[in-house]
Amino acid sequence: xxxxxxxxxxxxxxxxxxxxxxxxxxxxxxxxxxxxxxxxxxxxxxxxxxxxxxxxxxxxxxxxxxxxxxxxxxxxxxxxxxxxxxxxxxxxxxxxxxxxxxxxxxxxxxxxxxxxxxxxxxxxxxxxxxxxxxxxxxxxxxxxxxxxxxxxxxxxxxxxxxxxxxxxxxxxxxxxxxxxxxxxxxxxxxxxxxxxxxxxxxxxxxxxxxxxxxxxxxxxxxxxxxxxxxxxxxxxxxxxxxxxxxxxxxxxxxxxxxxxxxxxxxxxxxxxxxxxxxxxxxxxxxxxxxxxxxxxxxxxxxxxxxxxxxxxxxxxxxxxxxxxx
Length: 325
Prior knowledge:
The protein is of the alpha/beta class and 325 residues long. It is 35% helix and 22% strand. It folds into 2 domains: 4-153, Endonuclease, Chain A, CATH 3.30.870; 186-324, Endonuclease Chain A (Endonuclease, Chain A), CATH 3.30.870.10.
């Protein structure tokens, strides 16, 4: 059966779909879930893990892929991922071990190789779920052999041998995967090309202001008459990182057209986490913010590109409705 790709509009709907599928799963079914953050102390996540554990016990092929970021303290990390680790890390490991003991598999990717490691360096930001022939994007369709190889090696970068991947799906849809090599990103390259090729409009969402190279490309598009609607969260929504975001935005305002900042969301709005780039020609959606910051660190990312105007229009309309509610 041909794989089909989906993007859920609401995170809770996505979680409940995982729970429902896992509750029914048995021998012959496959479930693969990849995530950066993993916190089973949250009731909904705990329910997901318990259903995945039960599904593995019934013979379903269950794979969990969690980045080591979830086992690190913020900033500089020196955590030893083991049963003797402090809370909440020990509980997270026990949850993963419960899946393994029932016949499933898990991998903690990108474990620190040195005692002191910057927690955001070389992390895997890839997020996806495969439920038999369904693929949920926040990530995209990683076929079973890829997920198994990551379990074996512990790193998407090692599986891809430092090469970013581009895989053609059905029609005009393409799966893009960044291996996590510093200063290398096929996703960012194609995002900037999509911006450069726009002739009528650009719709973009980001959790912070995407300055630097991305901002310059957006500004160039505006100067040639393209309507740019850039929706992003204000610095105030970023907690302890807010001062850095304030400073960065001030510097960018000195370099870029003021119109580029028109669609900044009010501070009363929930933090925006959607990562959408759409034009009248096509669109991209996935885990990448389409900015250079994560690329400098070497962050593994995933995105779906569809060169279909109808998909682009649908995506813009759906996200716009969520922003306005």
